[in-house]
């Protein structure tokens, strides 16, 4: 935890992430409210014995705004994007460290049996 010194600049990256998380929470609440409205609408249609023909425009608009806020919140709360070309990431690494794949190393293989026979 870092204390903020008076007059120190605000870290925009942390502010952006906090705003993104707030947008995610707000969009989740909007989508939950939209779900409740849709359930109430279907229950109302059953009570008055009318068939379900379409979703009311208010519910569609609220659902669309919730999805848009959710996408905006996910993009705002994510880390910085890495470049697509890996040359920028691996520029300072040696060839051996780039090609090293420890998960493919095998220490129990048939070479051990051949070595014992010799």
What does this structure look like?
This protein is mainly alpha-helical. Helices cover 58% and strands 0% of the residues. It has helices at residues 12-47, 57-77, 95-99, 111-117. Helix 1 packs antiparallel against helix 2. The longest helix is centred in the first third of the chain and has 36 residues, at 12-47. It is elongated and about 85 Å long.
SSE layout:
Blueprint: H1 12-47, H2 57-77, H3 95-99, H4 111-117
State the gist of this model.
The protein is mainly α and 118 residues long.
The whole-number mean of residue pLDDT values reads: 83
| Secondary-structure class | mainly alpha
Please report the total strand number as a whole number. Answer: 0
Low-confidence stretches: none
Alpha-carbon distance between the two ends: 62 Å
State Rg. 28 Å
Largest sheet: none
Percent helix among the residues? 55-70%
Q: What is the number of helices?
A: 4
Shape: elongated
What is the string of SSEs from the N terminus onward?
HHHH
Strand content bin:
under 5%
Characteristics of this structure?
single chain, mainly alpha, 4 helices, 118 residues, elongated
